[in-house]
Amino acid sequence: QVQLQESGPDLVKPSHTLSLTCTISGDSFTFTDDYHWTWLRQAPGKELEWIGWIAPTGIIYYHPQLKIRASISRDASKSLFILTLTSVTPEDTAVYYCARSSAGAFAPWGQGTQVTVSS
Question: If pLDDT is split at 50, 70 and 90, which confidence band does 34 have?
Fold first, then answer.
């Protein structure tokens, strides 16, 4: 069974860059398995928002409204993938999740990490 764990800062200043890491552990896997490795977030009082994912081919897809600021990468040697979000504002305050996706379903999920954007 695969487990995912998010890590990164819990407080980021406005206009700065947020970088979060999702570390994958458990059963052996490769990034070329038939899964999309995904980042999502949920801001206070709002619905869950898909940020983007990296496909088995290495192609990366982003939410249209975030693609200018978001970047997702992977490091197979370290079994992790990374979300970078530039020029953050208080509207980027949210719980950020990483998850594995297949056929439209997300499982497993990381436990989530709270990120607050504030000066």
Answer: confident
